[in-house]
Design brief:
By secondary structure, this protein is α/β, with parallel strands linked by helices. Helices cover 44% and strands 15% of the residues. The model has no long low-confidence stretch (mean pLDDT 93). The structure holds GDP-alpha-D-glucose (GDG).
């Protein structure tokens, strides 16, 4: 088996493989003597000019350092103040600065330099996510010819949004150097093809094969999953249910999201407010637990979403709370996975209502955590990649608080039979297309894509 080299912004440095991506890649990394390369996590004053080895995992882990200037330009700047808002349909939140783009290019070039001595014939490289778009181009420029694949975890923007980038042509040139582009949803593959057709020179050769910037590239959809069997077990063994119930009340709705403007939290709070206004019988009968650990706190848009959501939840609580009931519990602290699993299982309704989302793994975790005899109901935004496959959820438009409030009321009153029917269909998909299925399907497709003859530039 050829050696797998995974590259991502962050190197997974925890002792336990807690993240789904680590679980997904661990087998392939272990069995092929593979390597995971990523950023060490903290900018440093004197970055080393070599990769650091981190022992203690079943595969080799190598990290690179970044200085403060590169970290700010590449990570906080181009990645999270330009690409993230753009890919989530919020070009108005972009902060375009030439030094961000320069820093972004510089980091991929640096990572390519640092990787080079570690690469050998027969390797395959799998680059993860929007922080490292230029990496294949940089590696190819240094003479690397092994298969290089790419997976985008977030949505791909359509032509109108792509045109708002400072460098749309360059984006498509970066992408053209990969053998296989993986997307979360058909929506993203469609946006990629249409944006590259309008803003670059893309020509479709088939549904999944394209000519772009003089090269041939394969592009396909691989919806990411979770480690379903582990999560089902985690939820079954979750802390004592009676204790959870006394903590959470009889009927609970749950939301679990990084505190991010793409996750639609203000809209969710407004819908809950409408639910209580139009269904006074639910007062003291239902509560809403929102867990939202903050991220990227030094980016201004994240400070704004924190203020907005704190203000809104405070307002709803002020309007409806009684002496022995608080409608919304809004918690900014992260919880251990097994506690989350238990809370999902306890919640009658799972709220996954992003305005834009690559996939959304919380939707899958919520389904996996349910008791199959008495399962809860998933309310899912049509703008999550998950909505393409999880069609038995209550699918809603998160911009419409009335529709969302009606779905909440429908979920509260849904019969056990209907809940079981929907849940068993959803669970089947979550189990069949789990994270192991995702990585093995992707890697098989990469092998195939890379076997094709390389096109010449005049073809
Ligand atoms: C990106 C894309 C795509 C959250 N709070 C806690 C906690 N979490 C865990 C959840 C879930 C993960 O974090 C979040 O994953 P999502 O998929 O919901 O969203 P993003 O972080 O935005 O991820 C997304 C994903 O990549 C994978 O491709 O699905 O669309 O945006 O697993 O459970 N985990 C713990 N405590 C918390 O408080 N332990």
């Amino acid at each position: 088996m050829s050696r797998l080299i995974a590259v991502s912004n962050r190197l997974p440095l925890g002792v336990n493989p807690s993240g789904g991506l680590v679980v997904a890649l661990e087998d392939a990394l272990k069995s092929s003597g593979g390597v995971w390369i990523g950023f060490s996590g903290e900018p440093s004053e004197y970055p080393a000019d070599h990769l650091h080895e981190h022992p203690g995992a079943a595969f080799q882990r190598l990290s690179f350092d970044l200085n403060v200037e590169d970290y700010e330009a590449y990570y906080l700047g181009y990645s999270n103040s330009i690409l993230w808002p753009l890919c989530h349909g919020r070009p108005n939140l972009m902060e375009i600065r030439p030094e961000y783009l320069e820093g972004y290019r510089r980091v991929s070039a640096r990572v390519a330099d640092l990787m080079l001595p570690h690469l050998r014939e027969g390797d395959r490289i799998w680059v993860q996510d929007y922080q490292l778009f230029p990496l294949a181009a940089e590696l190819r420029q240094r003479g690397v010819t092994v298969p290089i694949g790419y997976f985008l975890h977030i949505p791909f923007p359509g032509p109108a949004d792509c045109a708002a980038l400072p460098n749309p042509g360059e984006l498509f040139d970066w992408l053209s150097h990969y053998d296989l582009l993986g997307f979360q949803a058909q929506r993203d593959l469609g946006n990629f093809a249409e944006s590259a057709r309008q803003l670059a020179d893309l020509k479709p050769l088939s549904d999944s094969r394209f000519r772009l910037s003089g090269r041939e590239v394969q592009a396909q959809v691989f919806p990411i999953g979770i480690d379903a069997s582990a999560f089902i077990e985690e939820a079954r063994q979750a802390p004592d249910e009676d204790r959870m119930r006394s903590l959470t009340g009889a009927r609970m709705m749950i939301g679990v999201d990084r505190l991010d403007y793409s996750k639609g939290l203000p809209q969710r709070f407004r819908a809950f407010q409408l639910l209580l206004e139009s269904n006074p019988d639910l007062i003291e009968q239902i509560s809403f637990l929102q867990i939202a650990p903050p991220t990227r706190e030094s980016v201004a848009a994240y400070q704004d979403i924190r203020e907005e959501t704190e203000h809104l939840s405070g307002r709803v609580n002020g309007q409806f709370a009684t002496l022995n009931w608080t409608p919304i519990r809004f918690i900014h602290r992260p919880f251990p996975r097994n506690v989350l699993a238990g809370l999902y299982r306890q919640a009658r309704i799972g709220l996954v209502t992003p305005l834009a989302d690559g996939m959304n793994l919380v939707a899958k975790e919520y389904v996996a955590a349910q008791d199959v005899v008495d399962p809860g109901v998933l309310i899912l935004s049509r703008f999550a990649g998950a909505a393409e496959t999880m069609t038995d959820a209550l699918i809603i438009n998160p911009h419409d608080p009335h529709e969302m409030a009606e779905a909440m009321a429908e979920a509260v009153h849904m019969t056990p039979k209907e809940r079981r029917r929907r849940h068993s269909a959803l669970l089947q998909g979550v189990v069949e297309q789990d994270v192991g299925w995702w990585s093995s399907t992707y890697l098989a497709a990469l092998e195939k894509a890379a076997q094709r003859p390389v096109a010449t530039s005049d073809g």
